[in-house]
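Our preliminary data section would be incomplete without showing what the modeling component actually yields. Below, a chain of 300 amino acids is followed by its predicted structure, encoded as tokens that our downstream tools consume directly.
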Amino acid sequence: MRKIFYYLIFAIVITSCATNPHKKSEKIYDSKLKTLKETISKKESQPLPIIPRVIINVDTLYTKQLHTYKDTIFKMGSTPLENGINTEWIGTVNFNLRKPNFIIIHHTAQDSLQQTIKTFTKIEAQVSSHYVISDDGKVVQMLNDYLRAWHAGNGSWGKNTDINSTSIGIELDNNGTEVFSEAQINSLLALLTKLKKDYNIPAQNIIGHADIAPTRKKDPSALFPWKILAEKGFGIWPDEYLETATADFNVEQGLRIIGYDTKNLPAAIMAFKLHFIQTEVNDLLDEKTINTIYSIYKKQ
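Predicted structure:
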């Protein structure tokens, strides 16, 4: 009788293990998900060098969106496929959040910080950004860095055709015709210092909206101080004394290697000059333009 009892206990244990042999790893998976949920749900303001601390009140729509994504990433179980096969769920224990690899700088083309925030908090606008920096240097964070903002739209850089999924968007409160203020640029530099360190973003991946969408966008304007940013390690800049491009240098290929979409070559040339020459924003391919493209091409 005792033997039968032991056999029964043994059978129950075996059955229990057979029901979910991955119970231990699933528990680790759930634990990691909860940790990541806490990471992407953080809404506290981040202190930046020389920038006063800013506390952002997050509305219920933002919170509702977070819950939607939480429900999505916590979803487990079988999914039916069109061929009649059901997927089997076994959670891995090796994963983390995707990190941003680009920073895209914009100007708002609006007349105030309040107007921009109003736009970014209206559902019908369908546009957003991770950060907005006002003319007086105030920094407003509107989305966690790990989440996907809708700031880039249709555009590309090199082979990357979904910039929103790999980038952080920074909007500068500027209507496109104003000089960027010293306070605003200082705050931008402080923010870039933090972001570049946090995510190890390459200097050449800090670019403008016009760079990724040359046929549609002109921001940030020709008044934006790209040279100052490059001197601080945020972006690249042509050599002071330009080397003459080699006779066999292909301008279109050079622009493509830098990252520009050259399907519309004149637009790509204008976008390049908006960033790297600025005093001559046109599609004229003169000697200075060719040599400047050559200089940036060699830095890739």
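The chain has ten helices and five strands. The first strand starts at residue 102 and ends at 107. Preliminary results of this kind motivate Aim 1 of the renewal.
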